[in-house]
Amino acid sequence: MTSSTDSLRPESAPTISDLPALVGALPAKERQRFDRLIRVTQATGQLRPPESMHAWITKLFGSVAAVEQQTIVKTTNLVTMEGTLFNALRASRPFESGHSEEVDQVVSSVAGELLCNAL
After folding, report:
1. Measured between alpha carbons, how far is 12 from 73 in angstroms, rounded to an integer?
2. CA–CA dist 116, 119 (Å, integer)
3. Are the beta carbons of 65 and 44 closer than 8 angstroms?
4. From CA 114, how far away is CA 62, in angstroms rounded?
5. Distance in angstroms between the alpha carbons of the first and the last residue of the chain
6. Pairing with 111, which of 63, 64, 93, 96 sits 20 to 30 Å away (CA)?
7. pTM assigned to the model
8. Strands 69-77, 83-87: parallel, antiparallel or unpaired by DSSP?
């Protein structure tokens, strides 16, 4: 499956979706070390969006087919048992980024303090 984000990256730049193949290509010794610490699995998620969302999906992702099958990569830290799910299509989702005047006030209130010029 090719996502809309694939066309934005250089051909040589791997993405998180490539992680299972990259791990699989490790030399045996490095792969054993990796496998002791991290588990990487890949699955395909399937979505059947309602007809009422088709126009919106097509506008944002190019087609309904682009979202019907999604590659999901799961990593699990075998030491801490923490895990993360990665889905490249989620990076293409629209999101609102409201600019808060409150944040500006907090930032400007510490201007000139020690950590503002760390070097």
Report:
1. 20
2. 9
3. no
4. 48
5. 45
6. 96
7. 0.61
8. antiparallel
Per-residue pLDDT of the chain (119 residues; tens, 9 = 90+): 444 444 555 567 888 889 999 999 999 999 999 999 999 999 999 999 999 999 999 988 889 998 999 999 999 999 999 999 998 887 776 666 666 777 777 777 777 666 666 66
Structure tokens at 93: 């989702």
Nearest to residue 85, comparing CAs of 16, 33, 24?
A: 16
Q: Where are the domains of the chain?
A: 6-95
DSSP string, 22-80: HHHTS-HHHHHHHHHHEEEEEEEEE----GGGHHHHHHHHS-SHHHHEEEEEEEEETTT
* Phi-psi sector, 113: left (phi>0), alpha (psi -120 to 50), beta: beta
